[in-house]
Amino acid sequence: MSENVEILFLTSFVLFYLISYLTLVILKEEVSLLKLLTTNLMSATVAIIFDDFSTINIIAKILTIFLVILTLKSTYKNFFEYASTFTVFFVITLVFVGAIYSLNVMFSNNESFLSLTVAGGAIIAFSSIRSFLKVVLRKTNEKRFHFRVEIILESGVLDCVGYYDSGNKLYDSKGNPVVIICKQIVDILGLKKCGEIAVNTIAGIKLLELIELEFKVYLSDDSHKVFSGHGAISDRLKQKNCDIILHSDML
Predict the structure, then answer these.
(1) Beta strands 224-234 and 178-182: pairing type?
(2) Torsion over CA of 71, 79, 134 and 238, rounded to 10 degrees?
(3) pLDDT tens digit string along 213-228?
(4) The total number of structural domains that make up the chain
(5) Measuring CA to CA, how many Å separate 193 from each of 20, 89, 110, 210?
(6) Phi, psi (degrees; rounded to nearest 5) at 236
(7) Mean pLDDT for the chain?
(8) Residue 236 is part of a domain; what is its CATH number?
């Protein structure tokens, strides 16, 4: 096997593997590493054997792609599921092809830079998609842990944004859960302080002032829970895009 064929085989395998991996990440599916490696090794082999664009070769490549997609999920409940998987696989493939083509054009289609453009394009495409997925997943997770909160006052209620944080383990002297509330909210409402609580931070132990608080937390199914206790005042909550950090025991 010539050196060029070996490079082409390795390149095809890596590209198939990266595209399959990203498809699995997006679909939140898992398959065994052995199954993934075997399928993509076969795909790379087909890409080498059927390397021109005759009708039979195009059919062979298409069938191989369909086989790769079939292995990305253990079962498909219906055609729509398969079509969705195919769409994700196809879109990711287009991103890879676009990145590689763009670099190839930059190097004026010089064949001596072919390996470099393919590797560079694959790295750019893979990094871009991973970064995009991280942003999307972070936003999705943030939205999932945000809840509508109503602070109950004598004069009515105040709508706020609450964030469920499993890391909030604060308890008052009676062992009741303590939420963390934005200082701006406390100042607007003119709530009176009723003590202090020690909080462990990166910079060491810090004392936060406490207020008495009663509030409702609205869940995703439109039901709600009512809580009454203490809130520790902090001026750093806006960094989390919320007004109140809920306690880990509250949901």
Answers:
(1) parallel
(2) -150
(3) 999 999 877 788 999 9
(4) 2
(5) 56, 57, 72, 6
(6) -115, 10
(7) 80
(8) 2.40.70.10
